[in-house]
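Tutorial handout. Part one gives the primary structure; part two gives the three-dimensional structure as tokens.
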Amino acid sequence: MATTMRGRLGLDALLTHQPARRRATEGEPAGGSALEPTPHTGVLDARHRAGFPRPGLGAAFVTHPHVIAHRATPSNGSIRATALRYAAWGWPIAPNRASAPSTDLERIFAAWSRTPDAPIMAACGIAFDVVEADAALGRTALIRLDRLGVELGPVLWTAFGCAPTASAGLGDSDPRARIGFLVRVGTAAALRALIDPGTGPVLLGSGDRVELPAVLDQQRFHRAGIPSGPRWLRAPGPERPAFPAAHVVLGALALAPHRAFATI
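Part two.
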């Protein structure tokens, strides 16, 4: 039983502080105490060296993933803080296309500490797939789905497509602007054979990557002065979002008229 419990606590040890045990010491001054090291001391020291706050004596050290994201830097709008939030939701990400995507919070913290301005590249086919469409068509489909009361997952906007080859865009008026619907994993890739390449929506799944917005809050996005980077039209919430199946989005896109709507 003890072995089983130790195995279950393996991951928790990385995310929660185990209070040090006090022990009596001969000759200890009145009111004082010594601290007996715990098996997790090395983890806490590593967190401190990486920039995480060290817990004070007797203080509760909260290291829930979302709290880590909030406390990662003085500014919660930093790219690193946003990357930590995505990873905490189970979205594998990397700071470039060459690096292996990960959800490990320590690894994410270190990666964006080294390259704080790096984009957030997410791997498709693990936590979600993506249905990408022309921005005008995508906005029309989004309005239709909202009116029908369809529960959607996150929806993002980008100037050069969700899997871009360029690093900058021209803004909302760019005809290359695209909208990406995050959908249930595996459902987009399964329908690829039904879509002729270059003639309709792009279905992204295993092996593809998308660039995610560097900030979650839309108002903070505008204050940051990012005119053409990816941004959320429907931002993900604090809990793991529910993704619709790809065919739900494809059906709305098939019925959507080819006309632009005002920015949502």
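Part three, for discussion. DSSP finds eight helices and ten strands in the chain. The radius of gyration is 22 Å.
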